[in-house]
Amino acid sequence: MIRRVVTLLVAVALAAAGAAAQPSADAAGYPHRTVKLIVPDPPGGGVDAVTRLVAERLRQRLGQPVIVENRGGASGNVGAEAVASADPDGYTLLASTPPPLAINAALYKRLNYDAAKFQPVALMATSPNVLVVRSGLPVGSAPELIAWAKANPGKLNYASQGNGTTSHLTTEMFQLETGVRLVHVPYRGTGPAMNDIVAGQMDLMFVNLAAAIGLHEAGNLRILAIAAGERVPELPDIPTLEEIGLKNFRSATWNAIAAPPGTPGAIVTKLNAAVTEILKMPDIDAHLKKIHMRPLGGTPEDMVRYIEAERQRWSAVIQASGVKLD
């Protein structure tokens, strides 16, 4: 029954995306003025960096200014709401991380937007989350960490970027899959949490590869495992969590562009083609590799499938763990 319901939901979402891809006379001459990309996070983060990289190339391809505006707050809900209520004319777009598009609907009792109604434009880039521990923790691998935590329930604390963030939910998933019991200490963002991991005040954390790899290489913390389907080239000796027995354990930081509900299909198609071509450029690929991300791209239908899989994953974790936000 659950599988049939999920299949139906995906089919409905794909039908909506397909409808958006149909030509529209409303898109004639688009764009003829400034296009705004709203990032629902503070400046300086991964999605901000990728969006600004793509925005500059979009400006060149579209022949109009493309600006990035940061509207952080409420786990991305402030920025997402602004885009959801904007005119569906292709001049205000959302450049988002997972929470507004794939997580928050299951976390919050009420939202002022419906994430499922955004028009998918294109996936941009992704980076896997990794399991890190403080350098002085007496474990040398993820299996040893699990064994230690089981022998000492409630004695290890884990940091997160905040309640309901991907780092929080990934550790909740880790506890569900392994049976360990950890103590959650939420922070306000990646920086403060990582500072306390390095200082030895926190024991472990799930965080994106880009934020951890430099500290790992410097010996300030240790990466024990990758929450991805395969090892990453930067860390060929670090196993995936699937390799140690956690089947299909996936967690990544990704970003994507979406448009307000009702945006004409021809505009979506034009934007998708432009973003996809940008992500294929060798210098863009090289730049993303430098910040430990990889390009995604694909069609709007690909984005629907990807985000639907993410919604299912995190909704299941939220339901099983009982995590809720007001």
Topology:
Layout: H1 2-20, E1 35-39, H2 46-62, E2 66-70, H3 77-84, E3 92-96, H4 98-107, E4 119-134, H5 142-151, E5 157-160, H6 166-178, E6 183-186, H7 190-198, E7 204-208, H8 209-217, E8 221-226, E9 252-259, H9 265-279, H10 282-290, E10 294-295, H11 300-321
Parallel strand pairs: 1-2, 1-3, 5-6
Antiparallel strand pairs: 3-9, 4-7, 4-8, 4-9, 4-10
Architecture overview:
The protein has 326 residues and is α/β, with parallel strands linked by helices. The chain has two domains: 2-127 and 253-321, Bordetella uptake gene, domain 1 (D-Maltodextrin-Binding Protein, domain 2); 128-226, D-Maltodextrin-Binding Protein, domain 2. It contains eleven helices and ten strands. The protein has helices at 2-20, 46-62, 77-84, 98-107, 142-151, 166-178, 190-198, 209-217, 265-279, 282-290, 300-321; strands at residues 35-39, 66-70, 92-96, 119-134, 157-160, 183-186, 204-208, 221-226, 252-259, 294-295. The strands form two sheets. Strands 1, 2, 3, 4, 7, 8, 9 and 10 form an eight-stranded mixed beta sheet that branches. Helix 6 links the parallel strand 5 (157-160) and strand 6. The protein is globular and about 65 Å long. Mean pLDDT is 90; it is low at 1-25.
Quickly count the helices.
11
The first-to-last residue Cα distance is 30 Å
Give the helices and strands as they follow along the chain: HEHEHEHEHEHEHEHEEHHEH
The figure for the number of domains is: 2
Keywords, separated by commas or semicolons:
326 residues, alpha/beta, D-Maltodextrin-Binding Protein, domain 2, 2 domains, eight-stranded mixed β-sheet, two-stranded parallel ribbon, 11 helices, disordered N terminus
